[in-house]
Amino acid sequence: MKLHHIIFGTLTSLFITSISFGQAVTDEQKNWYNGPGLGMSTDKAYETLLQGKTTQTVIVAVIDSGVDVDHEDLKGQIWVNEDEIPGNGIDDDNNGYIDDVHGWNFLGNAEGENISDVRLEVTRIYATLMEKYEGKSKSDVPQEDQDELALYREVKAAVMAERKEAESVKGELSETYKYLAQIDELLQKSLGENYTLKQVKKARKDPKIGPSAEVMYLLMKEDVWVEDFKDYLDYCDEILDYNYNPDIDPRAEILGDDVSDFTGGYGNNDYEGPDAGHGTHCAGIIGAVRGNGIGNDGVATDVKIMTLRAVPNGDEWDKDIAMAVRYAVDNGAQVINMSFGKSYSPEQEQIIAAFRYAEQKGVLVVHAAGNEAADNNITENYPRPKYASMNDAFMNWIEVGASTRYKKAKVKKGILLRDGIAADFSNYGNNTVDVFAPGHDIYSTIPDNDYDLYDGTSMAGPMVAGTAALIKSYFPELTMFEVRNIILQSVQKMDKTMPLPGDPEKMVSLDQLSKTGGIVNVYNAIELAIRYLDTPK
Predict the structure, then answer these.
(1) Is 278 an active-site residue?
(2) Catalytic residue of the set 231, 237, 452, 503
(3) Residues 44-54: pLDDT tens digits?
């Protein structure tokens, strides 16, 4: 999944989307996903089914933006390569990676430089094909290149459309931001630097600042702030400067490698990188220390997080993902969590080979379905459980959509005021998405011993990866294929309808959005695992 996903709309739509920034986090929000209701009943499983049982450590590879391996709530939960001597500059275990004590960074060089903001894959393809096809008509191109010409035209149109939209939105929001910043300055002078919603509501009757207070009140009551408009402007700049900019190539400057040459040995051991927020959040969901009175409780206890940095701010490269998957498998990971995705995948055969390798070695792969409110049955979202060249889907794969803690949505005049069971942003697909898991208002670890609420199928994936690790740790005799089946066969079924993600006026069931029609439930899964092992084979 893209690390940033914003749906541009009118200014009015910004006011009613109930975006939450800077709110205090309640105790209910901090751990709802481990609790009852639409949570996974993780706590209940520990308290009733797992008391007194012994465990074996399970290694979970987190292929992501990086992980803060020194986080207070991940203490003792980070994988250590015991065959590597830290800091001696030698590849002690002869695995091709020097000083890979906690994993590897496939986005850095030997000098310690890191790739951060990059182009999307659609832009990379456009830039690659531009010299060959720009200005060419179909009659100028030989028959064997017609498909590639069609691809060029497709990606060029997509890049140009996104740039045009970003420029338009930036122009509109720039003026709005200036206007709101002036209002904010006026209200700070009158009401104080940290004025409240209550103060602004009352100030609407003030003849001097009333009109300004009215505007700010409309924003603040929907939890939208002046700073949020600056964030949108920054995102527009990111689109124009990086994501959809064909003229930049940070990889060429920092790594200078051939992205079609799937050979290892590149990178460094900077596990955190320049922005490890996303990866650290995922790691905390899987395995933050339980019961220590700080932060959040991870799903699994006896788990070690192997950190593999392969996802920049933008689209990942197929090469890095394939190499990270192979590293994970070769170094003992039993579960791989992948909270990323993109619309194009130019090196599909290499990617398929890497996932097939994981399948052959019995390693479970958990992948987030995406945040575009799209039907994965008909849209391109990579990596995926089944590619066009494959006869059957991978047997070691779980594709995960995002659910919420709300059993009933709030919709008014066609506008979604509160999500239903399925998160409004979540991708779905009754042939492509296996299951849903909590992915809305998820409190977990972020760098520098901090914590925050994130939304996304990126959060739902680690819920399932953590569940798999938990089951495997308590029942090590199970294969990961059996663990996968247990997770999918023990979901909490939903008989309620909910708005279709992206279309609040269309009601659907979870059966229409996923193969299982349910939400992952740890308690049910542990119960089923116990019954399965007690059944004579």
Answers:
(1) yes
(2) 237
(3) 999 999 999 99
- Give the CA angle between residues 233, 455, 59 to the nearest 5°: 125
In one-letter notation, the amino acid at residue 192 is G
Task: For the chain, give the percent of residues with pLDDT over 70.
Answer: 95
- Alpha-carbon distance of 513 to 457, in angstroms, equals 14
Residue 99 pLDDT exceeds 50: yes
Residue 277 backbone phi and psi in degrees, to 5: -60, -50
The amino acid at residue 190 is S
**Phi–psi pair at 256, nearest 5 degrees:** 60, 30
Q: Which of 23-37, 148-162, 390-404, 481-495 has the lowest mean pLDDT?
A: 23-37
What rounded mean pLDDT belongs to the chain? 94
Which token pair is 205? Answer: 């009757």
DSSP assignment letter at 241: I
Q: Is 536 exposed, middle or buried (0-12, 13-18, 19+ CB in 10 A)?
A: exposed
286 neighbors 300 (Cβ within 8 angstroms) = yes
Total Cβ atoms within 10 A of residue 495: 8
Closest Cα to residue 35, out of 519, 531, 514, 506? Answer: 519
Q: Which amino acid is residue 495, in one-letter code?
A: D
Quote the pLDDT of residue 23.
54
Q: Could you tell me the two tokens for 357?
A: 């390798």
* CATH 3.40.50.200 domain range(s) in the chain: 31-119+249-534
To the question of domain 31-119+249-534 being in CATH 3.40.50.2000, the answer is no
User: The tokens of 198 are what?
Assistant: 């209550």
Active site residue 458: yes
Selecting among 41, 339, 345, 458, the annotated active-site residue is: 458
Q: Is 237 a catalytic residue?
A: yes
Type of residue numbered 391 = N
Q: Find out whether the peptide bond into 383 is cis, omega within 30 degrees of 0.
A: yes
CA dist., res. 520 & res. 47, Å (int): 18
**What are the beta bridge partners of residue 273?**
none
Closest by CA to 312, choosing from 119, 483, 459, 453, is 119
Token duo for residue 382: 């990579």
Please pick, among 71, 102, 278, 440, the residue that the annotation labels catalytic.
278
Distance CA 247, CA 185 (A): 38
In 228-282 the beta strands, taken as DSSP E runs, fall at none
**β-strand partners of 397:** 365
What is the enclosing helix (H) or strand (E) of 524?
A: helix 522-534
Q: What is the pLDDT of residues 471-484, one digit of tens each?
A: 999 999 999 999 99
